[in-house]
Amino acid sequence: MNKLTSVESQRVMSVLGDMLDRLSFLTYVPVKADSRLLSQLRESGCATSVIETQWQLEDACAKADSDDTWHKVKVATRSLCRHMRENPVFLNTFFGTPTKEPADDLLQLIKFLSELTDLSFAKLGKTVEEETAHQELMDTIYNRRKQAEDELVSLRDKLSELRKAKEDETSHLDIQLQKLKAELSTINKNANNELAMIQAQVKETLDKAFEKQNIDMQALTERHLQLTRKLEADTTEHRDVEDGLRKAKCKSGVEVAGTIEKYDAEMTVLATEIDSIQAQYTQELKELHELSEHFKKIDEEQRRIDAEEKVLEAVRAEERRQVQVLHDAATKIQKVFRGNVVRKELAAKKKGKKGAKGKGKGKKK
């Protein structure tokens, strides 16, 4: 089975939507005539005849209930809804005017019709195959839910068993706790007894220590008296010794003062000698500086002269070297020249001998 055509579906949805819109519009229409609303409509430039006719017909229907009157009310209501849909200013005037809350029955009707519209739209938009698939999906979800509930029951049973085991374990632990508390009480009792014994021993030890302390205090008191008497005797003896030492100190002070005066006089003489020596040293040091500057200049002059002598010696050596080079060159030239002269003379002599030999041979013939 195919689903409805798009045009048919849109027509059905349009009818349902138009019905909801009309009901929504009617919720803003007062049940009785409202002069304030009429004045606002006139100020907005809207015709008030439609709403006035609606109120008149409703009043007439309330007074005389007849089919003709009901038919007129229906026609007037359709005309009012059409006018509100076509005239936005007219509709906004109703929206802006405070009215009483609609009846609960009307609101409930609008809610049910809205849900019916949504359901119809969902139904009209599905085929039988899609509905079957949806039903199968719902069955699957139901089966899963049932399985989950079964698992929940099983888990609850397991939880009960675990709780029971936990309670048993807790009971066992409580028994152990009671035993431990009893043992702790026994231990505390024994500890208190031992503490009492220790306190008695400590008290006895303290009593003995106090007795020993009293004996030691008496001995120390006697020792203190003896030492006090000895201190007084030693003080008297030491006072005499101190007087003698004080006199010796005064005598030594006088001697030290004389020695210091003598030392000061000697130091004054030495200071005078040091000043004179220092003045002489300053004078000699000044002369030393002057002589040092003088000899420094002489040394610089001597170094300059030595440097010039070295330069002159180098120049002379270079001149001697050049002269020696010229001399050696002249010697070599003379050697070469003399060699050439000697070779020429020897050559001339050889030629002369050859000529003489030739002439001699010719005469013999």
UniProtKB/TrEMBL annotation:
Residue ranges that the Swiss-Prot or TrEMBL entry lists as coiled coil: 138-208, 260-318
Major localization listed first in the record, in broad terms: cytoplasm
Assembly notes: Component of the nexin-dynein regulatory complex (N-DRC). Interacts with CFAP52.
Family the UniProt entry places it in: Belongs to the DRC10 family.
Keyword Cytoplasm tagged: yes
PANTHER family per record: DYNEIN REGULATORY COMPLEX PROTEIN 10, IQ DOMAIN-CONTAINING PROTEIN D
InterPro entries named among the record's database cross-references: DRC10 (IPR042815), IQ_motif_EF-hand-BS (IPR000048)
Function noted in UniProt: Component of the nexin-dynein regulatory complex (N-DRC), a key regulator of ciliary/flagellar motility which maintains the alignment and integrity of the distal axoneme and regulates microtubule sliding in motile axonemes.
Lineage: superkingdom: Eukaryota
Record-linked Pfam families: IQ
Keyword entries, A-Z: Cell projection, Cilium, Coiled coil, Cytoplasm, Cytoskeleton, Flagellum
Record organism: Saprolegnia diclina (strain VS20)
Identification of the protein by name: Dynein regulatory complex protein 10
Location relative to the cell: Cytoplasm, Cytoskeleton, Flagellum axoneme
